[in-house]
Design brief:
Largest sheet: 4 strands, antiparallel
Structural class: alpha+beta
Number of domains: 2
Strand content: 5-15%
């Protein structure tokens, strides 16, 4: 710039020079604007992708939950069936040891003595690797006597419903029917498998009841051919319930089974047998 131009710029009025500064400021703002716009766009894309992923994950979880629940029910059913098989083996062991006798109350597997103040489950203990627990119980005193409390409050895994969230419970769903033609007598007198004239493969020995009781308590399911059947099954499995058949096998019975079919299976000598397909 020559001296004449510099002189013209100095002579130029202040108000004429000011717009040129504003134009420079505007140019800087225009150059900065795309940067701010790009940053906002990136943030928007990231948020959108995150939201989409949440929707996808939420949808997958919703689809998987029923499958997970079914797997849990199947696993619990399998373990409970194993428990019932163990109980069945113990019952047959007592039956064979005391000359073909077992009952709804505790039967001493060595002497055949019946203890009406104790449940049949207590009598099974020596045959379920729980002999030390059995020996600690004073069978001459009631199951809930102070002397027996430290023993009858012990959790016996084979008597517990696997689907029960309470790991420390003494409650059991495994109960038997008494009276009305069922296998067991309400007076507690032992019976023999020979009395099951309908056949051991057609008669229920133990059932998975919805209402549980302490395993040592001698409280079973009163049965009458004319009274409503008790609720069966488990809160952890709504599709059916398990039964231990008198021949020692365990079966899962769906909720669609009729009362008439169940009554035929409960009564040991009604002269009515059913096929496997009817269960």
């Amino acid at each position: 710039m020559n001296d004449d131009d510099q002189q013209l710029e100095r002579d130029e009025p202040e108000e004429d020079r000011r717009p040129r500064r504003r134009r420079r400021d505007e140019d800087e703002d225009l150059r900065a604007a795309p940067k701010r716009s790009s940053t906002g766009m990136i943030i928007g894309i990231v948020l959108g992708v995150g939201f989409a992923m949440q929707l996808v994950i939420g949808g997958l979880i919703a689809l998987l939950l029923p499958a997970v629940k079914k797997l849990q029910e199947t696993a619990a059913r399998s373990k409970n069936m194993n428990n019932m098989k163990t109980i069945g083996l113990a019952q047959h062991s007592v039956h064979d040891t005391v000359n073909g006798m077992m009952g709804p109350n505790a039967v001493d597997g060595r002497t055949g003595e019946v203890y009406t103040n104790h449940s049949w489950r207590t009598g099974m203990l020596p045959y379920m690797e729980q002999d030390s627990l059995y020996r600690g119980i004073d069978m001459k005193q009631p199951w809930d006597a102070a002397r027996n409390a430290q023993f009858t409050s012990v959790v016996v895994p084979q008597f517990r419903d696997i689907s029960d969230a309470n790991q420390a419970t003494t409650a059991t769903p495994y109960r038997v029917f008494v009276g009305g033609g069922a296998v067991f007598n309400p007076d507690g007198k032992p019976v023999s498998l020979k009395s099951i004239s309908d056949g051991t493969s057609n008669t229920i020995l133990v059932v998975q009841a919805f209402d549980t009781v302490p395993w040592a308590k001698p409280q079973e399911l009163n049965y009458s051919p004319t009274a409503p059947l008790p609720k069966l099954g488990s809160p952890g499995n709504s599709s059916g319930f398990m039964v231990l058949v008198a021949d020692g096998s365990v079966r899962f019975v769906g909720n669609k089974v009729s009362d008439a079919t169940l009554r035929k299976l409960i009564e040991k000598a009604d002269g009515q047998t059913i096929g496997v397909e009817e269960w």
